[in-house]
């Protein structure tokens, strides 16, 4: 039965994978949403402990973690054999070389996939809009990464990255809660995440400037595991996301990233970029996030630092046809649903040829060439 | 079944380098090699619903997005929901004074008490489904984007193909008049010459899409968020949201039941010879296998019987029980583990062998391609280059030495009847009483001496290893070998003998 799938003119449906630091999105090319969004972690078969796939100490360990993790993705979630099937990998342009190499090795050598197409997440996100110019800000788990794309080409020298994302929010939330619920020693990360998602929000700029003066939103009593009570003061609910917007010593925040990136771009690009902002990533789904971002941008524009350098009037945001946390995946699924998958993929044969080279970094350079996508 | 409960006591070294208990390894009867879950090729065999045990052909499973048409999951706790029926009475349309009762069906979860009425789903008049299916609101938009990019991609591809022809430009100019270029390009690309998306109109229009329009307004916070108390029971958890990636409902009132995700039966294939080492029966209710080449049926099994107290540097007696699972007599010998160099050599031999096999396969493929052109027409059917992983070195640290018995042990074949026959056991084996403690049918207990090393204190247990050499009768008939063949096979075995007692000074 599985034999017949490849017969005829329809090729086996390619799979699209977007491995995030916290969540992995996995599904089929050409579909409107991922089949699953699962935590990027595995239960170690020997120690029975849950381990994050991206917390690896060596490439060998990463190899084993990926084998275990991807096996589950194929056989528990997608229910297809990986062998001789194409793969689209949605990756960040800042993805470490060691990671992408190990991932390619796992897919080619362990799962025997027929080809891999690496697509940069910021770039393919534009496929979900049908435009070819946008300033793409991805607020994920570890960091917020911004790359402007102009006429289908990433403006790489203007990229920005800041460790202002879910991890920072969650560690701030954890610290506040431990402070208040002094009888608790620690909270598991999943509890913190649940509290964040279900009770916290991004407050407005006006309130943020006078947090001490305003009436606090109602407190919440959270039952951890159904029994233990955790008190979440309204103030905490309102302020945990402030770590994203507070300017640090270098006067950097999520909002300044956008303006700083625009400043680094040539003048004729600035207006189109400011009027084509695309915010993606799970953290951008927090209630009030975009409203705050827009207010911050308008506010910062009045500040001397930017007023003198930017003659912008408006900022416009795109609404992609997907939830923010899988926009990049959807871009990969659209891109991978086209002929590009046969013309631009790295085939197993090409991989075999190159991986026999002593310096395998050469190949990654080669892939990068192929990755240059014009939309 | 001690090995099931304590899987890490006696571990066998798989050909790929992993260490697994005997219950977790395969024995490929074609390669005569041990294989394990890590080094075999897993394949999806059949799809089924774990709730109703309905079997789906893979094409249908694909069509239904791996979901069961009949069973639904509770969106709240993700368990299966059941259909409940009630009687409701409505006015008789013919006679307003009378009422008629009819059955109405709704969904209810027996685990968390969620019901379809909670989210305002109307009751159904039939018990079997008819529940409204939710569509991704963006589906149409996404498919038009997809069409758009498909044509863009096709164009790019055609341009590329054209560039490849540049040296023969004059010819192309000529054929261009007749519109042949595109047809050639398509032929080269292996695409059908007629039909398909955007192919009818070569040069012209890419299906129109309206590019997304960025807006100045963004979703703002609900006005009452600063004053409204939060009822956590009304807010979904992240796992509830992510269970439905395309919808990710934030409120419990938006949770709709989802069709149950299917499960699969898997078959395992030896990567080296492409024979199945395990293939389940198709019927989802069956727990039997069509093919099950488990090592448990082919490789002598070792269990620990007892072990004397272990003291660092002192010799203790470890008694193991050997069991011959095959229908043929076997001779077991114990050898010390190979040195690092020998080990490396062995692995290199293994890799060499694999390469040879690969080359053979390629040759065979070439000749078959000459004979028929199936694999050219359908590239997905032809064998692809295989570049599976190379075996790895065993990654363990021994914390004990072993003194192995010098003489070999003969084990008679398995005889199921003998299991129930306690009378007059007579053996004609010349056993060395220093080696064999006792024997019973196809089993024998063997003495080994263990000397824990200093490192055992730190590791917390005494791990010893040796090579077990056993004779195996290969009954697999091949083209050039019809008769059963006796072969000597080796497997590295690692035994965790337990903790040491008392600190040594
Ligand atoms: Zn193995
Ligand atoms: Zn079912
Ligand atoms: Zn339930
Ligand atoms: Zn085999």
TrEMBL record, chain A:
Pfam families: Actin (PF00022). It comes from the Eukaryota. Belongs to the actin family. This is Actin-related protein 10.
TrEMBL record, chain B:
Keywords: Acetylation, Coiled coil, Cytoplasm, Cytoskeleton, Isopeptide bond, Phosphoprotein, Ubl conjugation. Signal peptide: none annotated. It is found in: Cytoplasm, Cell cortex; Cytoplasm, Cytoskeleton, Microtubule organizing center, Centrosome; Cytoplasm, Cytoskeleton, Stress fiber; Cytoplasm, Myofibril. Coiled coil: none annotated. It comes from the Eukaryota. Residues 346-374 have a biased composition (Basic and acidic residues). Its main location: cytoplasm. Belongs to the dynactin subunit 4 family. This is Dynactin subunit 4. It comes from Cryptotermes secundus. The lineage of its organism: Eukaryota, Metazoa, Ecdysozoa, Arthropoda, Hexapoda.
